[in-house]
Structures are given as structure tokens and as C-alpha cells.
Amino acid sequence: MSSRSSRRGIEAVSEAVLAMSRHLEVREVLQTIVSSARELLEAQYAALGVPDDHGGFAQFVVDGVSDEQWKAIGPLPRQHGILAAMLHEATPQRLRDVKRDPRFGGWPSAHPDMADFLGMPVVDGDEILGALFLANKRCATRPPQDRGGFTEEDEELLRTLAAHAAIALTNARLYERSRELTLAGERARIAHELHDAVSQKLFSLRLTAQAASALVARDPERAREELRQVAALAAEAADELRAVVVELRPAALDEDGLLATLRTQVGVLDRAHSARISFGHRHVRALPAAQEEALLRVAQEALHNALRHADAGRVTVSLEGRGRGAVLTVCDDGRGFDPSAVRRAGRHLGLVSMRDRADGVGGGLTVDSAPGRGTVIEMEVPGG
Asked: Does the pLDDT of residue 377 top 90, yes or no?
């Protein structure tokens, strides 16, 4: 291999590794690995399968196949034949014509035709994380019938890429595990709030109802007053429970994205509360998963404050693109507060948590509020 082609290969691998490192979600990392491998080795098709414990695949991503083709192909492949050799024996597979290999078991009628094949296990220590494979080497200077197939140099490049892919995939799994632990912490916090807020109101509700019952015969007017208090406490408890239920809903960021998730949560809160709550957005591009989650959590915390503490009649939530990043603004017309006095009193209204979330993704948070003139919370995050 010439020094020039070697340098091109190193640069291409470097670009692929950098692309993988930009993503933290497992699915995004898998897709980036596949597309990087296909582009790097000039293949028509590429795929990566992550095995499950039942002879199938927990995840399987492809590149070079349209959505229509993928749906027509049908069920995912099983761990057999050449795929099994990569997954169970951790051995690379480089074939001139995959259909001529004795382990080849055929494929569905809608499956694209494949000839030359290069497969590489993705390994982390003794653990086989998946199988990465390419098919149909594209050679611009040769007609398809004279295609030379994948070379030993291609195999070495794919081996290097697979090693870095293992690191990226392991990091993504660790990140998702940390998010699960964070979610568990959020649920514990919400449970604590439920105990502190709703339980206290229900306890007061019970005592007030008992007092009303005792007064019915001897002081009907006071009994009626106590019952009005019962109704007010019940309404407050219902609002607390609705807010907790909304927070406990899964964010669905992976399936719906940030805009749809915010729109849904604002809609639910608008129906559940007497305050008018609206959501708007403008020029928002896709953001890294960590940034989207931070924006969602800060929006939830700001809404929580506006509805539970500020007695707001109107709350607006907006998300606007700014360069490659975005700016979230939550504005309410509630009673407002003095941020410095809140800090001195040791009450934070979630401000510390919101600032931590902004700092954690390289963003910034500003709070503009004063008694009697509402609150504006603005959070800006960078893009990917």
C-alpha cells in the first residue's frame, strides 16, 4: 500500500472515529458505525447486528437499503451461518461470493443481491458486542462483473474501525446506564415530593372533614366553611397529583423528539390546570440527546415552579434555534420572587438543579424575576 493511500486510510478512519464519538445514544452510535464503515470501504451495503441471548438480534441497523426495501425483507436474520461464525467464533469473514460459501442459507426474495462480503466481529475484551459486515465493493474504475471484491487492506481498515466501534458502543451503553440511574433519582425525588406535598394535603383534608362532621349539628355555618376548605384542599391535592403524574411519564425523546415531547407535556398541563399554558418553536434543529434531555428537564422544573409556587395565570414555553444550538424560554405572569433572597433563605425552587443541568451540557441559565412581575427562565445550549 502506498504512503498516499495509507494516509487517506488513516484520515478516513480518523473521521469515522470522530463521527462515532459525537453520539451517545446506542442506536445513533450503531447507525454511525455502519454508515462510516460503508463509506470508508466503498461498499454498496453495510449492516451491524447486536446479538440477544435467544439466537436473534437485539438491534440490527443497515445502510444502503431503503425503508421500503427494509420493510419488504421481513423479519431480522437469525444467528446462523456466516453471521454465527463472526458472533460465536469472533472470526473475520472475507468472501469473494457469499452465495458460494457452504454456510450460506439463502435470504428473502426482497433481499438485495450480494456477492463479495466482508464481516468483522465487534469485540470488547472477551465480549462479542456485535457483527459488522459489508457487501458489494464499489470499484469506480471497473464494471460490476469485474469487481475485485474486498482486499486484505480493507479487512485491516475494518478491523481498526471495529476496535474503535467497540469503544464507542461501550461508552454509549455506559451513558445510557447513567441516564437510567439519573431517571431513578428523578423518580425518587418525585416520590419524596409526593410524600411531602400531597400527603400533607390529604392529612389536612382528613382533619378538616372530621371537624366539619363534628360541627354539622351544632354550628352549620362553621361546618359549611370547613367543607369549603375541604373542597379547596381536594383541588390542590388533585393539582399536585396531576403534576406528579405528568413528571412520571416517560419523556419519549427517542421516539418523538424534543418538540413533540414538549408539546405533549404542555398540552397535558394546560388541560390539567386553570392556568393557560402554551408552547411555540422556531427554527429548531436536531440536538444531541444530552442537550435535549437537559432542555426537557429544565422546562419541566420551570413549569412546576410556575404552576405550584407562582400562582401563574399564563405560562408560555418557547424553543428557538440559535446557531447550531437552541434557547428555551419559560415565562409566567405569577407572583415572581427575588432570586437573591431565595438563595439567602436557602430555598432554591429548583434553580440549583436547573443550573446544574445547563452546566452539564455546556449551556447557560438566566433567571429574571421580581416580586409582582412574574418570572422568565432562559436556558441556552450548544449544538452537536
From this structure: yes
Quote the Cα angle for 362-356-170, to 5°.
Answer: 65
Q: What is the pLDDT of residue 240?
A: 65
Q: For residues 119 and 126, what is the distance between their CA atoms, to the nearest angstrom?
A: 18
What mean pLDDT value characterizes the chain? 80
The three three-digit cell numbers of residue 299, written as one number: 422546562
- Tell me the average pLDDT across 316-334: 94
Q: Which three cell numbers stand for residue 86?
A: 463472526
Residue pair 332/314 in contact (Cβ under 8 Å)? The answer is yes
> What confidence tens digit (pLDDT) does each residue in 29-42 have?
788 888 888 988 99
pTM for this model (two decimals): 0.49
Helical H runs in the chain?
3-21, 26-40, 67-73, 81-89, 152-193, 199-215, 220-248, 253-272, 289-308, 339-344, 351-360
For residues 152-191, b (16+ Cβ closer than 10 Å) or e, as one string? Answer: eebbebbebbbebbbebbbbbeebeeeeeeeeeeeeeeee
Dig out the grid coordinates for 358 from the structure: 445547563
Residue among 31, 280, 203 at smallest CA distance from 132: 31
C-alpha cell recorded at residue 138 = 464499489
By the 10 Å C-beta count (0-12 exposed, 13-18 middle, 19+ buried), 34 is classed as buried
All 3 cell numbers of residue 132? Answer: 459488522
Contacts of 199 (CB under 8 A, 6+ apart): none
Coil, strand or helix: which one is 147? coil
Spacing of C-alpha 218 from chain mean position: 61
